[in-house]
Design a protein that fits this description.
One of its GO terms (cellular component) is nucleus. The strands form four sheets. An eight-stranded mixed β-sheet has the order 17-18-23-24-20-21-22-19. A seven-stranded mixed β-sheet has the order 1-6-7-3-4-5-2. It has a seven-stranded mixed β-sheet with strand order 10-15-16-12-13-14-11. The longest helix is centred in the last third of the chain and has 14 residues, at about 280-290. The relative contact order is 0.09. With about 400 residues, the chain is α+β, with helices and mostly antiparallel strands. It is built from ten helices and 24 strands.
């Protein structure tokens, strides 16, 4: 599923009356959301929800309260919505413990557990929904403690983590104790993290103060994706030492950050909160492959501040600057592949931000750069800091 087709909501005290769909998500799906949607929970139950518009915001209203009551949602719960098209969403529900909430009990008589069985009506296993409260479910006594782990599919073994400075998240990451319990403590000494583009990272698991932490290798992962305080990660364990990881920025919008260490797919770096749509991504990836640079290409979607006004400028994100702009140069030469002219732009450094100021405006003017055009900065192997700027016009991505 396209990584832009997810959004995350953390429930506040007023969540039951309505739920706001993030504006950026609505923009990403191109207005495909109708006035009635379907929410499908992990237990397979589907709910019809009416969508209304107030003050340019899309709200889940009629039908939402029934969904919230059925799954006993509470303040502090976190919901991950995955859009599958045609106004259909799949919803994962996480409790404040950061583990996915147990939903309803399912009949599991077909599962080859031949130990003593019981019929459970315990409220812990019957939730959610009064209409399903009287459905018996037969489970083996050995499975009661870890019912969720044993009787849900691989896709349901999830936990979430919010990057917080107090936890020293750039050096290590603690795995929630409840998740460790859910999997019966069966987490190996080394696991593999897979990000949405398919790239994988090997991480060592260590025990610290009666907790399991992602240690050796985690710092490289956190650095590669420039994790920041407030970033939000969803880990899905498929067994066999393998986790899939989805990353969201502090606004709960899917992160489009690319690996910054070593030139691997996709071979380019975008600013922290830039999200390329499908057409832009296709054009950029084609151009990056055609350029064939041994270094990452820096990708900038031109905004008003980049091209209009006497003080217009552009800035390289910290991930790119740390890797490629540490020469101490105070100017950069800019080239255009279809122009023999060379432009000299001043580099302004402030709080680790590298901006092109004077000289950049002339480049913008001479090359008729417009809002929405995509600039690809190709670092050259020259003694003086030099970049070729390839431009993909906005109209080629629509």
């Amino acid at each position: 599923m396209d990584k832009r087709r997810f959004f995350v909501v953390m429930l506040d005290k007023d969540f039951k009356s309505r739920l706001i769909i993030p504006k950026k998500f609505a923009k990403n799906v191109g207005g495909q959301i109708s006035d009635r949607i379907k929410l499908k929970a992990r237990d397979g139950e589907t709910y019809d929800i009416e969508v209304s518009k107030e003050h340019n915001e899309l709200l889940l209203q009629s039908g939402w309260e029934a969904f919230a009551n059925a799954y006993e949602l509470g303040q502090g719960d976190t919901l991950v919505f995955g859009y599958s098209g045609d106004s259909h969403f799949e919803v994962q529900i996480f409790s404040p413990s950061t583990c996915e909430k147990e939903l309803s009990c399912f009949p599991i008589t077909s599962i080859p557990c031949v130990q003593e069985s019981i019929t459970s009506h315990d409220s812990h296993l019957q939730s959610p929904g009064s209409e399903r409260m009287n459905k018996a479910c037969t489970i083996c006594t050995d499975c009661v403690a870890n019912h969720y782990w044993h009787h849900m599919g691989n896709k349901d073994r999830c936990f979430i983590k919010v990057m917080m400075s107090v936890s020293n998240f750039k050096e290590k990451l603690t795995i929630p104790k409840r998740f460790v319990t859910n999997v019966g403590g069966q987490i190996p000494e080394e696991v593999q993290l897979e990000v949405p583009n398919g790239k994988t990272y090997n991480i060592k698991i260590a025990r610290e103060h009666d907790a399991l932490v992602m240690g050796s290798g985690w710092a490289n992962f956190a650095s590669a994706y420039d994790l920041k305080q407030g970033d939000f990660l969803v880990f899905t364990y498929s067994g066999k030492s393998h986790f899939k990881v989805r990353m969201f920025d502090p606004r709960f919008v899917p992160s489009s950050r690319s690996p910054m260490h070593g030139v691997s797919e996709p071979g380019y770096i975008v600013p922290r909160f830039t999200v390329l749509n499908d057409q832009q991504k296709h054009k950029v990836e084609d151009k990056v492959r055609a350029i064939g640079s041994p270094y990452h290409i820096f990708v900038l979607i031109a905004q008003t501040s980049n091209i209009i006004g006497k003080s217009c400028s552009m800035a390289f994100c910290s991930a790119y600057a740390k890797k490629y702009l540490q020469r101490g140069s105070d100017t950069m030469s800019l080239l255009h592949p279809q122009n023999s002219k060379k432009w000299e732009a001043e580099i302004e450094i402030n709080n680790n931000r590298h901006k092109l100021g004077q000289g950049w405006r002339q480049f913008v003017s001479d090359n008729k750069l417009k809002v929405g055009d995509i600039c690809l900065f190709q670092l050259m192997e020259t003694k003086k800091l030099t970049m070729i700027v390839h431009i993909i016009p906005k109209q080629e991505c629509t």
